Amino acid sequence: MNVLREFQKTGADLFTAGLNNSHSGNMSVRVGRMLAITRTGSMLHRLDHADIVETAIDGDDAETRRASREIPVHRAIYRGTTHDAIVHAHPAHVIALSLALDLIRPVDAEGAYYFPHGVPVVVVRNAIASDEVAAVVTPLLRTCPLVVVRGHGSFAAGPTLEDGLHWTTSLEHSARILCLHLSLARGQPT
Fold first, then answer.
1. Which CATH code is given to the segment(s) 3-185?
2. Of 19, 100, 124, 147, which has the maximum CB count within 10 A?
């Protein structure tokens, strides 16, 4: 599959699943010493060639200004891990749980299988596009395929964008179940 088609398919799937709003989220893939990343302000479910920016992993160039504002986080992950793709999304149930939990531990069988040690929630002062997020998320992604930034969203990494989509959708599914479970445990209607 070509890179643009992989971006288009993953972006459309993220939007259809309700994991991003019309203009949120971003994705990238490693291309040697470069990365291909979605353009700042792009609509992930309507991507075309102009929405994919190729820029250096290790420094700014003429194209960097067009890249997603989360580029510092993507660069740090590529420099600090062996991952080849990153998906950043805003899954609502995951974000809601991140406001109350330091570790999202799925209670459903599939979620417990995929995330046996839970998914870490990191707390930072500046949750959007910051060097602080980059410094905290990168080491965690060496051992966990997905990390949540409190109140902001998730960063999933792996060999392909499809892997990032898989981790993101799996955690959101488990988060929905956990929210229902917590609501029922309190005797509240859902």
1. 3.40.225.10
2. 19
